# Entry
Amino acid sequence: MMRVDAYRAFKRCLFSGELKPGQFVSQRELASLLKVPLNPIREAIRQLECESLIKVYPQKGIQIIEADPKTINDAHDYRLLLEEAAVAVFADRAPAETVDRMRADTTAMLEALAGSAADNAVVDAALEAAWNFHDEIIDFQGNAIVSHHYRLNSARIRLFRSNAYRSTIGEQLAPSLRHHLAILDACERRDADAAVRLVREDIETSRTITLGLKAS
# Structure
């Protein structure tokens, strides 16, 4: 269980910007940061290296992966490939109660942000909700292989965007969540073409933001 806790804590630090792309860190520094023993840290390192979120260099340490423009574009192209197909299926087949639940969850997060935009816990919850929205559309297809590889890819994009976590993410979240409501409206109408177009716009916005972070 401590191994799982170490892995999850490590990923939280990556996605929150506490550990930054390109940064080097030692096993002992990680153990101190995550407040767990070295053995679970080593297991978490092996898993995250397999997921291509970190690189391990003997005698030098662990480096958080960096992204060049090609890597960023490749990751977003892969998102487009998977999500456009997934949302077309979702728009065609998703039960009304699923769409209604996702709309209620998204609306609740928008209301929470409006009332507490400076609250880190609210921002964290809204950020998770935004990513979970896309996960749920992918998972609706019922293809475990697609879901697994989609999450590996989206984890890399989250890491690439982690530099913006506290400085601008609060400003980005509300428009993103409103865009998700528009996607759900298209799905409710069974308008797959509109849903695909809106998902494409969502992903292209993410691409632009991520490339801008790299350029800056």
Notes: The first strand starts at residue 24 and ends at 25. The longest helix spans residues 69-93. The chain is about 75% helix and 5% strand.
